[in-house]
Amino acid sequence: MKENKKGKVYVVGAGCGDFELLTLKGKRCVEEAECIIYDRLVNKRILNFAKKGTEFIYLGKENTEGGLIQSEINNKIVEKALEGKIVVRLKGGDPFVFGRGGEEVEKIVENNIPFEIVPGITSSIAVPEYAGIPVTHRGIAKSFHVFTGATAKDNSFHNFEPIAKLDGTLVFLMGMKNLKLITSELIKYGKSPTTPVAIIEKGTTGRQRVITGILKDIFEISEKEKAVAPAIIVIGDVVEKRKSFRWFEEKSLFGKNILVTRDERQGEVFCREIEKLGGNAELLSFLKIQDKMMNFDYSILKNFQAILFNSPNGVKFFFEHIPDMRVLGNIKIGVVGAKTKEEIEKFKIKPDVMPEKYLTTDLAEEILKITDENDKILVITSDISPCDDVEWSKKYKRKFEKFVGYNTISATKPKEDVERVLKNIEYITFLSSSAVKSFVSSLENDISSLKSLKVISIGPSTSKTLKNFEINIFSEAVEYTADGIIDVLKK
Questions:
Q1: Residue 434 is inside which H or E element, if any?
Q2: Which residues pair with 324 in a beta bridge?
Q3: What predicted TM-score, i.e. pTM, was given to this entire model?
Q4: Which one from 8, 18, 39, 241 is the annotated catalytic residue?
Q5: Per-block average pLDDT, block size 10, for the chain (491 residues)?
């Protein structure tokens, strides 16, 4: 606790759905926060921007009427700020568009706590745009109007008589429970029954679904299609533009629900690549990567003529601990795979060799082209990567020496948690044998829940492990990389 000093509160709009809709200022606030209080509509991937040691408090309302009462949320924000912390109140969409951010700020002001408000991209415009619907358009809609589709129990609902007379686009947030009332009241007060309507579920995410109709039949259609919240309702002629403006659903991975099993760091990167292509990525990390390069004596590098890296992790940890780039001198460098090459080039270093095949054994052969007999070659690898430095030394007349730069540790999950996630996915991706073993261990060797799922393997070694567990393989990547997995998913 910081004595005798108030903290500061940032009330931050997190945007909606797609985590990349977070603003740069919002990201900066999350990075600086000491405590983050967030709700259920915040994309959890945003929390990964927080620094180590940040306190996370989930205070989400599970529906528009229940969950924690607002006063509890207000009090928690004040409590943490009075502890002297930099507090980020992270809210889905924009804090002031039916987000009750104003009530939170009132409580902050009451307690004389410094604060800032960071606007967020509201679902009222972003969700229609991801569905190919412009809320305004020349010659069609000169204005748009945003309404809450739900009300507090002690408040009366909208007066639809003036609303029905509006010429612009009508957008209702949180309105699924009142859809029948909304449509019938608009028709009652003069809105054309043939006015186009769109219901957009889980907008801006890989699970987005758009249901269209007209004012007089959209409720029946939504019942038949079993439309569910979170969803927004867009009413107006601009809905027709969707026929030619739709873009998000045209992405190569749209509609595909994909489980990523990598470690947290690489898993996050892989999930982002999937989501860029419109897919929905679920991350369950079955591995933990433990840095061991702090145990390496960089002064011995002067004794080596070459260094080989067989993974991006090895590169990352090697350069995190390097005391001075000049210790590399004229050492030749070899890498396996495009991602490892990409990682080392971040440090302005171009590898001297990279084999066509993504195998460490091929890298050992490749380095022979630019080294001489009896040269010393260091291999930075993991505790589980195949690296027979003794055999290579005999075979190639070089002095290969491996150093375990990181450990790959199994991270099992409770069986019920894994099975719950599997119910909502179509594809499972495995990028290592270790992830397969940890996954199967988490399921307590019961793979019955995989019968209807499509399992994708990164390459022969991982495929062999899957077959050992009698897991059917839907496809194996041609290129043994994460990009190779993406290529399979695109088909």
A1: helix 433-442
A2: none
A3: 0.85
A4: 39
A5: 74 95 98 96 93 92 55 94 97 94 96 97 97 97 95 74 96 95 97 98 96 98 95 98 97 97 92 96 95 96 96 95 94 93 95 89 95 97 91 96 96 96 97 95 96 95 96 94 94 91
